[in-house]
Amino acid sequence: MTTSTILLQCLLVIAFVSVSSALSIPDPLKDVPSFVNPWHPFKNLSGCHMGENRTGIANMKKYLSEFGYLPSPLSNSNFSDSFDSEFQDAILSYQRHLGLNTTGYLDEKTIEKMVSPRCGVADIINGTYTHGRNLYTYFEGNPAWPNTSRDLRYALIATSASTIDVATLRQVFASAFSQWAAVIPMNFTETDSAQDADITIGFYSGSHGDGEPFDGPLGTLAHAFSPTDGRFHLDASETWVATDVTKSSSDEAIDLESVAVHEIGHLLGLGHSTIEEAIMYPTLTVRQRKVELTQDDVSGVQNLYGSNPGFKGVAPAGVAGEMDSSGSAEIIRGGLGVLLGLGILVMTVIL
């Protein structure tokens, strides 16, 4: 056997192993996010149930407290890591509000919801919430803009932290307000003056003076205050997308208009809905676009303000966005690239 033949066989073996590895061996970094989701550690608690004591339950209790399911601990104490009866009641309440099966333990679907990006407005405020006739809710006391305020002005007052240009931001927010204007007798007009605005909109990071600090990428996305406060804040650390978010290559892509439509619902007095398809459902996944009002959203807001005379009803359209799946195609292309490169090398040796 000649030296050239041995070299050729070795190169072919290397090519086969390289391609097989690229196609079948999982990348150990594939499932490791490049960002820090503040709730990602909750996944370690999957399956946890009554009577267990697990590290991390205290942080989940803090999460549930922030969104209204548990009272805050006394000033001189902290939450414990014990899965006690009070924690179980909070889990059951959370599951009911999010439209999940009421298992009373940390099943996979419940954990999946808890680690999802969401609105920063609590689901239960001051221990109470008001249900409408359907599954929408209102803030405590059912606050709404008075009859004399049917032409509201909004201003973009803090946009320097956004990576989206101001012209595009104006288009996105105008479109978001139009979703609500189409169903109730109210008009929304942009103004350049914050002093003249009923509603102010801005991008902020961390603690920003309203007692509701943001927590970084893919935690709380935004929050807005009930009528007639008018403040609407977005987390500047998010990867906001104003184009087709379903085609974004980013694992952190959040559709700006979808969040804007949701938060405007809060500005108008709506709380969170238990219907997952509704605009006012509290969570939104990465690369999901959700801007069309459902009947639940429309019923809730029209119960506060009446119907726009030109409103013809809710169109039966889907609202759920699609999650991109990527990775396997890149692996295949990478493997074929290795094979092609080694094939050229083999041909060169033979020649």
UniProtKB/TrEMBL annotation:
Binding positions (Ca(2+) 3): 215-216, 235, 238
Record-linked Pfam families: Peptidase_M10 (PF00413), PG_binding_1 (PF01471)
SUPFAM superfamilies: Metalloproteases ('zincins'), catalytic domain (SSF55486), PGBD-like (SSF47090)
Binding locations of Ca(2+) 2: 198
Presence of keyword Lipoprotein: no
GO cellular component, one term: extracellular matrix
Residues making up the signal peptide according to the UniProt record: 1-22
Binding residues annotated for Zn(2+) 2, in chain numbering: 119, 262, 266, 272, 280
InterPro entries according to UniProt: M10A_MMP, MetalloPept_cat_dom_sf, Pept_M10_metallopeptidase, Pept_M10A, Peptidase_Metallo, Peptidoglycan-bd-like, PGBD-like_sf
Full protein name: Peptidase metallopeptidase domain-containing protein
Lineage: Eukaryota, Viridiplantae, Streptophyta, Embryophyta, Tracheophyta
